[in-house]
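Contributing new records

If you add data, match the layout below exactly. Sequence lines come first and carry their own label; structure lines follow with theirs. Keep one chain per record. Anything else will be rejected by the validation script.
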Amino acid sequence: MVTYARQVRLLCSLLAALVPLVMFASPSSSDEETRASGGNPLPVVGSYAHLKQLLAKEWEYHRTLRMDYAVENGAVFKAGAPQAAVPAAGTAPADAVYSATNVQVEGVDEADIVKTDGTYLYQARQEEVVITQAYPVQEMKIVSRLPFQGEQFTPQELYVDDNYLVVIGESHPAVYDAAQADYFVPVTTKAVLYDIHDKTAPRQLREVEIEGSYLTSRKIGSSLYLISSRSINLYGVMQAETELPPPVYRDSLFEQTFKGIGYQEIRYFPDNVRPNYLLVAGLNLDQPRQHLDVSAYLGSGEHVYASAANLYVAVSRNEVTPAAAKRVPFVGPVPANQSTTVYKFALTNGHVAYKGSGRVPGTVLNQFSMDEQNGFLRIATTVGNIWRNDEATSKNNMYVLDASLRTVGKLENIAPGEKIYAVRFMGSRAYMVTFKKVDPLFVIDLQDPKAPRILGKLKIPGYSDYLHPYDENHLIGFGKDTTEVKDTAYYQGLKVALFDVSDVAHPKEMFKEVIGDRGTDSELLRNHKALLFSKEKNLLAFPVTLMEKDKQVRNGNSLEYGSFTFQGAYVYSLDLAHGFRLRARITHLDPEVPLQAGDAWYRSENNVERILYIRNMLYTISDTTIKAHELTTLREAGVLAIPSRQ
């Protein structure tokens, strides 16, 4: 039973999650003891008393600054995408039997809500995982369901290979705190491992859990890596009379109870102490007796990039001086020094080892802002504010860091007054999209790591949120079309464009397709895993929520939003001769739904979320339905309903 004292602690934990992720400039810590062991250069926290000491400066600034005024006036910033190019990761080769998840780096798998092994579909739903025999389509049927109802576990994503199914999600277990002789209920990131040699009866092998909200994961061969973020109750640490528990983890292969990570094992980033723990865990699935390798760091984590050998965690930082935060009146946000610290971890057969850190000016957009090649990390950042028109206006940069994360090359002050909307690295080139009124696509040469340079640029209306390689000289942009009204650009329909960069000095937009009107959207603009692309199969598909205006409105007010008319998969052919050709629109909604919907739409269980292919069949997947269409004709070949569990 949870006592009153524990309820207070739980409430404090909830309040701690609301503490703004803002770093105020403070004197450099003189605490430079390096009680590191095992070759790890980071110092250890060591004790609860030292944890309080490390967090004291942050607590003092949060306590004394006029945070209410700063937040109200926007002063608090929230801590925040010539050599031939490599083939596109996630793009299936010509002889591929089935499509894989669209990933950033070839050979580095990313978890998704749906996976296939070429015969079966594995689908994460609200309280279960459904395994469906999808091929041959004449035998399409559900073969097993893995329920999690009542287990305080919500499956979010999964991995699958020839031997294993790994289901990842967040859990809310009751954990016993021996020091307080009481239970508490943390949020944990949980992975459940199954043997799937018998698809009709998967056998659970193991559960591993690390405390904290699920940040991301990667799977490289048989090695699985989990990353979570666990906030610290800053008020509780500094004011509570009782000691709050450290982060916990569990590996069911060795024990069912949770273990606390001792403060002598928790390390901290001396230049980036925050009320947060970053937990990184590794496991080799082919080594059934290998312990879960867990590391905890006092700090934070926002954007994660992984190569086959290294994991990089980027943490943005906005340093606001107390004097500046108190300055009133002021125009615009408080001046801040924006920077990003990147932490590097070596990945080896399920083991994770911290290797070092580096810092660059500005903040990163997402995982696609980082890339590793030949031992160098390339990273794109934005510094400043897009709404300023003085020296503090936004500027964009490209930095190259060596294996020790020392900056060896840089290209700064790109597109002043704009910010990065998309980045894609392809071999020794980078493609950067910035935007304010128009969409400049910059081609950046990174062949000499010490001297990055702009080769060319293209300015066109609209912008791209995601860039995907078509081949070494062409790439596809997914974003929004725009129209300019009184010096302000307003987004319109969904825009898909094919860019020709074979002449790097003069890139051009070869073809474009605008889908719908203002308000049209796609998950692809926020999640690259929603894309299905195969150059060899002349296939491009992604989910779309279509908003359309009537003809009179379309010819009038460009700021008017469209009304909902469709949700489902748009399936295109795409080649260099003909561009985009819409082949089909596949929906799982009943025909009367758009008529009943009104102006807007929502997260419906019938929304198509993923599209994939197995041999000669194209599959669209929603929470309630799987539809199969012939790839050549797109004629419907089969439909399978997924009934709710009773």
